[in-house]
Amino acid sequence: MIVERRTFLRTAVIGSSAAAFGGTLWRGAAFADPAQPAPGPYGALQAANGNGIQLPSGFTSRIVARSGQTVPGTSYRWHSAPDGGATYADGSGWIYVSNAEVSPSSGGGASAVRFDSSGTVTAAYRILGDTNNNCAGGATPWKTWLSCEEVTRGYVYETDPWGVNAAVRRPAMGRFKHEAAAADPDHGYVYLTEDESDGRFYRFRPTTWGNLSSGTLQVLVAGSGTSGPVSWANVPDPAASSTQTRHQVSGAKVFNGGEGCFYAAGTCWFTTKGDNRVWAYDATTSSISLAYDDSLVTGGSAPLTGVDNVTRSASGDLYIAEDGGNMEICLITPDDTVAPFLRITGQSGSEITGPAFSPDGSRLYFSSQRGTSGSSSGGITYEVKGPFRG
Hints:
about 5% helix, Neuraminidase, six-stranded mixed β-sheet, disordered N terminus, single chain, TAT_signal
């Protein structure tokens, strides 16, 4: 009865917001309505393999690195609590970067693994150190990694995936409990999520695109609904010298526990863990809508809970990692269906983090932050290879 009442109340809110926006919900080209459960495009999950991962037929997995152990083929010891990640083309190979969501004394920062054209690991190294609880982040079009501190008045650090250039702190992007970042080269913004129960959704416009040393931080302003047009307002004091950024602009829209975000094809998708929602911000029309809401799932239980990091494949499918839940990465298709893509077994004390595709789209990287031990020192970083649709 509690779930049914929650669903009713949330549906009522969405209905009232539709009226507030003139009786019609915004319907984006990528996702028209909140996704509903349906069979996934790759079929049912098979029995767990030797790595404890259930995958669709035709897919395989391998372990790339384990926290506290040297990355095979290198002398580098992998960091604890692997979190947000991204990939970068590197000649005929590629690089996967990963944050460490631990304190400076425990090795907070970010690391990278380099692969050759066959997927063999050739190097691993540190790209950021002495930072605090770096959770998620985002890749930039100019091939840097934005690593975000998930602490009060945390910073964004711009890092070099190749490990050549020193990391640079970017205070102009605001000081708050940062979660993830997504660069929008089409409109010249970087979107930012905030992991607070009364968090906000931000965007940063650099003075010069490609240079994050200066610019304007804005916060999304809208009504109480979940769909329709939105606007933006400047944050008066991005440094949060006396007032937290989320409390500086009257009318700024509240998002319950901002997590991952990813930009592609004119849309920034972002997740909120407090209400298990996946949002879509249409950057061209400046509108928001829901791509998924667990309380609006009909005809059975919600397959996706504990929404967290998100990425997107070339086919337009969203891959959302669960923080808890069934330890799944779920797939939301442009046809508004949602289904598990993989499930990690025997690791109920962990969460899935850092999903990112190799540049050619044939491999998916991600981590189990605390692995089988349930401790940050037990993290495992995986690769899944298979016939991903393009």
